[in-house]
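In this supplementary section we document a worked example of the pipeline. Step one takes a protein sequence of length 125 as its only input; no multiple sequence alignment statistics are reported here. Step two produces a three-dimensional model, which step three serialises into structure tokens for compact storage. The input and output of this example are shown verbatim.
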Amino acid sequence: MADTAQIIALWPGWTSSVGVMQRLQVQVRTQCRRCGALMRADLDELVARYGTHATLIDAQERCRMVACDGATYYLAARRYGGPWRIMLEDAVLCDGLTACPPALMANGRPAPAIIGAVPKRPIKT
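The serialised model returned by step three reads:
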């Protein structure tokens, strides 16, 4: 696995840490690999939990949907209505994206656009 500092250097500056993302008001979501749930992530909460210097690149957490034990990954958009970027760099984490279910909003409806193509490529929603 590559050094975290080397990975972050390849990403846009606005993705470098949750503190930077919070200051720039970046839009952040999570998507579950198992159920496909797509949810907003609260940057204030992420800063409180992990600190301002934490990165969301290759970060995962448990899904917050009831009865789902899947893992979520992060997506970020620099501005409202902008293209979404999958926050995965590690090849092992990226491999499973093609087997993920389609993105679903928290109410169970399909997301307006398909999210989950290739990491680091902007995806329009």
